[in-house]
Amino acid sequence: MRLVTRRLETSFGVLPARVREARATAHAPVLCLHGAGGMARNFGSVLRRLDDGPAAAIDMPGRGRSTAAPLETVEQLARCALEAAGELWPHARTIVLVGHSLGGAVALEAARLEPERLGALVLLGTGARLSLAARHAALARRDFDALLRQLEADGTPPVTLAQLREVGPAAVAADLSAAERFDPLAAARHCRCPALLLTGAQDPVAPPEAVRELAAALAGPCEVQVLPGVAHLPMVERPAETARAIERVRASLGTSARAPERRWR
Q1: Which of 4, 1, 3, 30 shows the shortest CA–CA distance to 99?
Q2: Considering only CA atoms, which of 43, 36, 168, 195 is closest in space to residue 107?
Q3: CA-based diameter of the chain, in Å?
Q4: pTM for this prediction
């Protein structure tokens, strides 16, 4: 399935989106949110594997092809994501947010801010603590090259390091600062919509025990799924399994996701 690029006009700036166009459908749209130092293209393989329903991934401000100024709090990122969803699918009654790592924290915050809009969450590699930020936020602000050297020493894959260089120091520092100040457990207590927490058995950032701790704090129904042999990027390492998990969640919501009388703005 071919993806098209749209430019979304939001109060946070212009956001490029990779969009999978769908035939008329009543299924809830899926919006994918990248993690710290990530981009919309991280979800390309997943978007192509989804069933014929509306779906998209966005470049948050200052990331990927976005030239807007980076946002520095999870609340700002969540409001930005909700506004982008309204631009993409103005008549959707509910949406499914899929968030990777920091993007999962953004999804949790969005569920706190506007619970009536969230049909379900899929959290990828998101645990009870955003541990990478706690270790590296100060270094990112002070010396970006030193941060990359530290991440390389920690075993970060070369492809991830290359993407961080592409995203650049300002956006990476903003992401890590936002994560450093956010408490996923506190946000989880306000999340009543269904949630699937998907993580890799070898994830060094969100190990299964940290993901289960977050799941225990959620106020709504949830499920934890652990992928053997997977580290911190399930949507890249196992896109087919990730897409199937997302579709299972979307299908569980039924087909009443469209509300022609209301526009989300």
Answers
A1: 30
A2: 195
A3: 54
A4: 0.93
